Amino acid sequence: MAAVAIHQFAQCITCHAWSPDHSMVAFCPNNNEVHIYKLVREKWEKLHVLYKHDQIVSAIDWSLRSNKIVTASHDRNSYVWNQEGSEWVPTLVILRLNRAALCVQWSPKENKFAVGSGAKTVCICYYEEENNWWVSKLIRKKHNSSVTGVAWHPNNILIATTSTDGKCRVFSTFIKGVDTRATGISSSNDAKFGEQIVQLDLSSTWTFGVKWSPSGNTLAYAGHNSMIYFVDDVGPSPSAQSVAFRDLPLRDVLFVSDRMAIGVGFDCNPMVFAADERGIWSFVRFLDERKIAPSSSKYSSQFSEAFGKLYGQPKHGMNNDTHDGSRHRGGAHENCITCIVPMITAGDTIVKRFSTSGLDGKIVTWELDNVTDALR
After folding, report:
1. Is 332 left (phi over 0), alpha (psi -120 to 50) or beta?
2. Between 233 and 357, where is the model more confident?
3. In this structure, how many other beta carbons lie within 10 angstroms of the beta carbon of residue 332?
4. Phi first, then psi: what are they for 237, rounded to 5°?
5. Could you give the C-alpha distances from 192 to 11, 94, 139, 216, 302, in angstroms and in order?
6. Domain 3-291+328-375 belongs to what topology?
7. What is the structure's pLDDT at 365?
């Protein structure tokens, strides 16, 4: 399998999201704007530029059912954008943050969304019809550093977070009058808003890219130490696995199915991880076939390779042919991949198409005719 389409939209892309029918894409070109493009006669045309934020837009999510866009920014604000005719109209969300908003995601039922921040806080936002605005309840004093990722469990109640304090946590977000009690994980049924279900101390480094599997039975997140963690039976006694790999760290993770996940990050190439019949997770292969996987004899030069990637040149005195076995060789992305987004419709449990964007300004779409394609 290889990339289906590669589109150069900007010099650098911070984040992106798709419209429900995948005919439009919204992205931030590493500034305070959100650009919306539409595919017209096999050519991408710019339709809208959303101006409201004062600083870099750090995250975007486009709801599948209600066709709303939510944005979060370093300016500490979040907006919900509604399409009225040919215009997108913003509504300010009351976040009450004193640091940057770093990540955002709609809940599965789209009656809430979560914003993670540099203020060690997670804002759970919901709509108050009587006042016609979006308000938030805060999960405070649980994180010791910035919240880098948020992910909703399919039950619409539990939320997982990652942080630069090296931990992954799961909380209840039950709001009376907004939610009904959860099913699937008994430990969450009686939990109050903001109650911590579990804290995972698997990583000694920053953590990123937390995601739930489609069934909600497995949780995955990445560490800045070139490891990815898979957790089953989330609750008082979780079962966890750590998978180490010898390439550069991941920044984001996506479950394609309950037994396969795609990781993206500083290595510029999606990586496939899969679970065998016993439930044991392992690294399988790079997704971009144009990238040559390193041989074991070249792993000893990993530091030199990383040095070359960070500074644009190999370590002094090293020959490219001898140390750069896993470097990018004309693949779809040419710089760090920071975002991976499923291209699904409401109700899908298997992801057959997804997209990636990164610091090279490209949005790349990938397609799986069959999830087993990625294993070969």
Report:
1. alpha
2. 357
3. 26
4. -130, 75
5. 45, 22, 11, 20, 46
6. Methylamine Dehydrogenase; Chain H (2.130.10)
7. 95
Give the tens place of pLDDT for each residue, 297-317.
343 344 445 444 444 443 333
Instruction: Give the model confidence (pLDDT) of 48-86 as tens digits.
Output: 999 999 999 999 999 999 999 999 999 999 999 999 999
Tokens found for residue 225: 């130490």
Q: Which residues contact 88 (CB under 8 A, 6 or more apart)?
A: 36, 48, 50, 69, 81, 82
When computed from its CA atoms, the radius of gyration of the chain, rounded to whole angstroms, is 20
Question: Model pTM greater than 0.90?
Answer: no
Residue 137, strand partner residues: 124
In the chain, what percentage of residues exceed pLDDT 90?
73
pLDDT of 42 reads 84
pLDDT at residue 288 above 70? yes
* Residues 6+ away with beta carbon under 8 Å from 144: 120, 163, 165, 167
Q: What's the Cα-to-Cα distance from 205 to each of 80, 96, 266, rounded to whole Å?
A: 33, 28, 15
pLDDT single digits (tens) 153-175 = 999 999 999 999 999 999 999 99
The rounded distance, in Å, linking the Cα atoms of 97 and 99 is 6
Nearest CA among 68, 59, 80 for reference residue 14: 59
Longest dimension (CA), the chain: 68
Domain locations along the chain: 3-291+328-375
Residue 113 Cα distances to 80, 123, 158, 184, 313, angstroms: 10, 8, 12, 21, 42
Q: How far apart are CA 364 and CA 354, in angstroms?
A: 8
pLDDT of residue 373: 55
